[in-house]
Amino acid sequence: MLSRAADSLFWLARYMERMDNVARLLEAAQSMSGMTEGVEEWESALAATGCDEGYEEKHGAVTREKATHYLAADLENPSSILSCFDAARTNARAMRTALTSDMWDAVNSAWLEARRLTGPAFKPERIGETVDWVKSVGTRFYGAYAGTMLRNEVYWFTRLGTFIERADNTARILDVKYHLLLPRDEGVGGAQDYYQWTSILRAVSAVRAYQWVYRTEVKPWNIAELLILRPEMPRSLRACYDEIDQALAQLAASHSGRRGECHRLAGEIAAQLRYGRVEDIFRIGLHEYLTEMIERTARLGDEVRSFYMR
Questions:
Q1: Spatial separation of the C-alpha atoms in residues 226 and 179, rounded to whole Å
Q2: Whole-prediction pTM value?
């Protein structure tokens, strides 16, 4: 496969996953903002997406309305939902002949519908409806390629992009809650803290999964374990890196066993997550651990592109 084709598939999947992740962060911020009168939740959403510096340069002080629009609809923000739609469609169009008809329809029909969205769709009072639609688009795209693609290089580059992006987002959303949203007016374990952690679980569609696994009230260390180490949780770092490691192994096999630094790094991280313990993570410091995971995931993405796409 040509390097530019691999690059287009990789970034098609990343932008579709990023669009879904931004929608989930908006949903979490919207939910958490009902408990306070401040803007900490919107500051956390901007930080989680890496959009805080761009927002500050353009708008300065954070407000709910401006943050919602910047994350959802501002085309000058490369990580906004509408920007992700545009970037995903551009990459899909470049690889049109390699995609199944279901994949192309999932991307193109959503892009056409997104172009018809007007300002009111991104107002705080209607953003919930828009977010639900965006999440359904992400689910449709994932189902389209998981259910219709041959298990060849096209599939594995697409899957690799999905799970590198998902791992990055899971680490970010968990770190932002821990680092920026610790309760200020009450102790850890109070009503506000409980509601915020529950909102994080909702953002990754894990409320029922948490109840099934732990059968107890919401506790931060359990949430950290669920989103970092539990293999049965599909958005956990462990699950994401198991998928990344498998995708890279399949790609190596299709390239005569040729391997590079990206394979070594992915295998190392996957093994550490497979045998890790939540007590050790908290002994290091949850924020410090997640910061390192975000940096290592970014490095892995760079190594993948250096090995396969240049």
A1: 18
A2: 0.91
